[in-house]
Amino acid sequence: MESSYRIERTLTVSGKEYHYFSLPDLEKMGFKVSRLPLSIRIILESLIRNMDGRAVTQEDVENLIRWDAHNVPDTEIPFKVARVVMQDFTGVPAVVDLAAMRDKVREMGIDPTLIQPQVPVDLVIDHSVQVDFYGVPQALELNREKEFERNTERYRFLKWAQNAFSNLRVIPPSVGIIHQVNLEYLAKVVMTATKEGKTYAFPDTLVGTDSHTTMINGLGIVGWGVGGIEAEAAMLDQPVTFKTPEVVGVNLHGRLRPGVTATDLVLTLTELLRKHNVVGKFVEFYGPGVSSLSLPDRATLSNMCPEYGATLALFPVDEETISYLRMAGRPEEQVELVEKYMKAQGLFGAQKNVDYSEVIDLDLSTVESSVAGPSLPQQRVPLGRIGDSFLKYLETSSQDRSSNGQVYLKASKIKVRGREETLRDGDVVIAAITSCTNTSNPKVMVAAGLLAKKAVERGLAVSPKVKTSLAPGSRVVSDYLEKSGLQAYLDRLGFYTVGFGCTTCIGNSGPLDPAIEEAIVKDGLATAAVLSGNRNFEARIHRNVRANYLMSPPLVVAFAIAGTVVKDLEHEPIGKGSDGRDVYLKDIWPSDEEVNGVIANTIKREMFIEKYRDVNAFNERWNSLDAPSGLLYAWDEKSTYIRRPPFFDGFSVDVPEEPEELRDARPLLVLGDSVTTDHISPAGSIARDSPAGKYLMEHGVRPEDFNSYGARRGNHEVMMRGTFGNNRIKNALAGREGPYTKYLPAGEVMFVYDAAVKYMKEGVPLVVFAGKEYGSGSSRDWAAKGPMLIGVKAVVARSFERIHRSNLIGMGILPLQFPDGQDINSIKADTSKPFTIDLRGALKPGGRARMRFTTTEGKPGEVVLTVRLDTPIEVEYYRHGGILQFVMRKILTEAKS
Prior knowledge:
- The protein is of the alpha/beta class.
- It has four domains: 83-366, Aconitase, domain 3 (2-Layer Sandwich); 371-611, Aconitase, domain 3, CATH 3.30.499; 661-677 and 765-896, Alpha-Beta Barrel (Aconitase, domain 4), CATH 3.20.19; 683-721, no CATH class.
- The protein contains 30 helices and 38 strands.
- The mean pLDDT is 94.
């Protein structure tokens, strides 16, 4: 499309000519492009390059080019990304949906290959390995064998998909964690494509079906997490549409003090930015402190962007970026292209006079050793006060633990691995070096190894009560730990490698020793997990471990040795050495010089080249796996893993009529603040007596073969039964903790799923009421798909997390927001009586809906709710019944024309 904004220029790299659309030349037209934040400029380039007058218009470009930091326009941005990344927990259901779309297209007499990814898609299998075996040299191989026993059917499906769909590449198991693989291998920073005989260069941009896709922002790449539903639309050439954002600048200055890690910094940053409420905003880091952070340090800060609630957390591309790309084995021509392109576009290095909507100051020298917990990433606690944090948690959460201002710790005698032990409240039962947040950072991984070395040399050991595990984020990590000699010391403390994937952080911590689990459940003990992850929500790490603390890898090793979180490691001894003397954390904490020395002498470019030369080389089981062929998938009705979803049952090309009201709706749940997607759709273990567990047993699956909810996401029958299945969810209707509700008007308490089935049979629409930050946490599409399948028509909350709100709309569930300061309690609604929500004239951005109800005094009540359909395209998605139905109708309409 011709436009005055499309100013084409060329640059030459290694004798090749590359065309690009110039941003600096827009300055000559009078636009202050150089004052725009980097993220806005990169998205602006995408709009200019993809302008076609339909999906992306000249008006869209003009709206963004005039972005004003202090008067952000109330417009939407149709952002076409260069690629999509997925992990298998979210990727399998996304590909299942595409396969179902192909079936429906074929049924309607249209070529099924129209359903095809239009941009490159990488699906990394990293979420399916579970820590069943640990503390033994064979743990890695044993867990991998178990992984294939459980997941062969899913893996065969993914191999089929790789052959059936163009533009889809599958990275097999045991290569690494998606975000670390993206950082070390997949990301290009600058992409190229050939059109009409010309090779164009443009910024690498993406969305991913995992919240922590933002880790790639540390490499200067614009991208963030979306639900699988949005990702499917992006794959099918639909723009990712969002409201024009505010951009917050975080001014970093000073340097981290010796011994302070990037983990301490990111926990401090998470607490700080949560207080500033950056939810839904873009964050960019700038200032003199940026240059003091290594690329992995930056990736650590960007990784936890979802924990502080922002959409992205971008660092600039600079000399450190170039050095990292070179070290990570990128071809020299690619590295040169990145540097020349970013400089030509004015996107390289420190930016001057950039306008930000808000500036937040952070002095790196003020950061101290920290942990976060016991249940939220923003609950930062100075290292020395972790015990106080745990005791306060016990006092507030357990009525039988405190009296007269004193907190009492319960204890139970157990026998573990042939030894008599006492298990107490606060004892560490899981210690996991896990998660892309920290395993991607050599400084903290080497520090963990050096601390283990010093601890072993002092004669310290780990109690058999502690389940220890190490899940490196990539093969490169194992390589440098082995070659430096540090892995041997981690092994001595029980931190054997258990798998290359997202393990404990996602809830794949596996079972505890039966004696420990029995004592926890029988005696109601509040034990702890320590992990180097990014998420520690209730019941996420392990359903029976109540307190979970995030911390750096060396601190994970330290607390594994200490054996309890009720200890001040800054002042109390970590344990006694072989000489009988007290050993303190400071005695074994490695210096920055020691850490940097190991890194300089061990980590080489050749490691990255070798480990990523052939990603299929690490798993013969994958290579030998047979897979179906053909354009359409052959569904197996007996399968308990992969089932054809019902989302297109009864589908027609006609757009449904707009609903006028939700009449006589019943509340399915009444929830409080900070309800996460883990509460709504758990990823971890499946309880035997749950609706999902009963379903699996009815279909011949033994409890020991249940696998996890995450692994069963290709089967809607399991997932809808697991909706609101978290055993820590607190539904005011039920009067008890767990996956229960009160079926009204009978007043009978039962599983949420069982009540929903009764309501659906009666044709009763369902509503969920909630507080602030509903849907925080992982970008989990089943947290929207599940409620939709059990009859939820609307969610009424005080506020929503960004990704989950869009996922609800994507599945045809209406998000509604209470007026500021109000909730279901303040309006004094009687939740035992029906509600009616009047939607006439309300289905538009910023629309208002009226909810009528009966008050607790028996009088008629009414409240005006904000319709959280924030953009015109979200209105369209909702009108169509969901984003997939919208895309399907668009494809069918274009095919017929």
